[in-house]
Amino acid sequence: MGNYKANAKNTWNFSLTEDSRKIGDLAYEKWYSFKAEIKLSGREKYKLEPKGFWDSKIELTDGRQSLLEFKMGWKGILINTFFEGNEKTYLLKLKGLLSNQYVLLDTDQEELLVAQANFKWKNLTFDFDIETSEKFEGFEQKELLLLTILHCINYYMNNSAG
Questions:
Q1: For the residues of 2-50, what is the DSSP string, one character each?
Q2: In CATH, what number is assigned to the domain containing residue 66?
Q3: Sign (positive/negative) of CA torsion 19, 48, 157, 108?
Q4: Phi and psi dihedrals of 42, rounded to 5?
Q5: How many folded domains does the chain comprise?
Q6: Strand segments (E) across 87-135
Q7: Can you name the residues that pair with 127 across neighbouring β-strands?
Q8: Quick check: pTM over 0.90?
């Protein structure tokens, strides 16, 4: 199992770490925007951009191809990944009605990760504690997926609040 922390530098920049080792950053273009950039510590850069009618879908690209897309649904956020040409589907949802925990499920309803949102009154931002399963730890693109899930949670919070 893995334990990660996502800390807000401000309302539009997040840093993801595991045991004080920096994994990458999620940076939004501006406050309350769904356009963002993921920068992994290995210097790879990825773009998250709204697509579709009313920008209802968010797409992750590496500049050449779509690697992942997600959209809000009745049960939560439906995530489709296209890593290495293999399509997989996941569901990100709240763990309970009034919960501050988000859970990622695969198509077999197996829990892959739990992310707990912690509100910081001093800065009016959220930090996240993320615990992953052994199965998730075996994913080749887990670091990119973790930062994208952080974006999904922010998307979920903004859509639920608005």
A1: EEEEEEEEETTEEEEEETTEEEEEEEESSTT-S-EEEEETTS-EEEEEE
A2: 2.40.160.200
A3: negative
A4: -75, 10
A5: 1
A6: 88-94, 101-105, 111-120, 125-132
A7: 118
A8: yes
| Residue-number span of the structural domain to which 18 is assigned | 2-161
Instruction: Look up tokens 């273009």; give the residue.
Output: 29
Q: Which two tokens stand for residue 31?
A: 């406050």
Would you write out the chain's pLDDT as a tens digit for each of its 162 residues? 899 999 998 888 999 999 999 999 999 988 778 899 999 998 899 999 999 777 789 999 998 999 999 999 999 999 999 998 899 999 999 998 788 999 999 999 999 999 999 998 888 889 999 999 999 999 999 999 999 999 999 988 877 765
| C-alpha distances in Å from residue 58, one per residue of 2, 47, 77, 83, 149 | 26, 10, 11, 16, 12
* Cα gap 8→102, rounded to integer Å: 17
